[in-house]
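Now for one specimen:
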Amino acid sequence: MERCAGVDWAKDEHVVCVVDEQGVVVERSRHASDGHGVQGLVEGLVALAVSQVAIERPDGPVVAALLEAGIVVLPVHPNQIKAARPRFRSAGKSDAFDAYVLAELARTDRRRLTPLMPDSDATRALRAATRARDDLVALRVRLANQLRDQLERFWPGAAEIFSEVDSPIALSFLERYPAPEDAARLDAQRLRAFLARNHYCGRRAPEELLDRLRRAAQVAVAALECETRRGIVLGLVRALRPVVEEIARLTAQIGQALAEHPDGAIFRSLFRDPKSAVTAAQLLAEIGDVRARYPTKEALMADAGMCPVAVESGRSRTAVFRWACDKRLRDAVGVLADASRHHNAWAADLYTRARARGKDHPHAIRILGRAWLGVIWRLWQDRTTYDPARHRALQALVGVGG
């Protein structure tokens, strides 16, 4: 008799519900989230001959332990749980009830759920690095915006002297000159020495940078407020510097990991700029290396959010934006599509024709991204790199002078 289980995981406690093939509850149990609790959870499921487990996440200690025990894991999106609750009860929510709903989904909706197929260690490591970098970039943007806001309130010139307020040279400048009074005696000679000490690699002469600093708007601020904002600027600089350094370290690590990954060349071949290694790595990390995960290119397009969802009711038929998708994968595909339209004739033609049909830029990028995913899926399945000379749609366009 085949048995299924649902696990409602939480930070402190995991709730388990086991049902038989008729939907009868065989056992309910609770387990602590520590190592001993997880071990007991898995041993209990093995003892009950549970063949598959539905759970609301695709990773973590519980999932790792279940896979190691040879149990099929069925990741279920939280939206699917929310939609399924009314099938069993009109209202209400509890951990035990959600565990039961998960168990029933594993029993009745098995064909609609995709078993978890773990990627290789190299791919999981790459995914961890790219996602951590994404989070740090978001943090850097927030801190940089706060820093820029502070400067615009009492020293706008310091925000304009360099192109990016969170660049290493800008942070060094603000660390040395956090307020207008600190730069009162700054001249071209002193600025030249400062730039040399901090290995400035920009192409702006000290005189030009100094002129940019002085031409900025002047804001009259009282002494006490100025001193307070000076301290805030120094605090934000101290917060930003390690974030910027860690992003640089992760970027180098990602580039190295991509070069060493068996599938790295496939995704790297899609880009011309060597600096695009991060986006190529994001594509690889989110798509993974298990070919059975996406048996068709349409499955990959849907998971990347590049194809719409059809909504039909009576005579009404509409296509709406696909919200449920891998948003990190969608962002990476969007970067590829947007970059490729500037140098790839085929991509430029698809984008231009989409805009001519009245599509806005984001919609046109999704159309182009969907087309790129068809190419990527074929390369990924065949384990071969992108060759523009073998891209038939591109060559057909080039052949007619497109």
Q: What stands out?
A: The longest strand covers residues 25-32. The chain is about 55% helix and 10% strand. The domain at 3-112 is CATH 3.30.420.10 (Nucleotidyltransferase; domain 5).
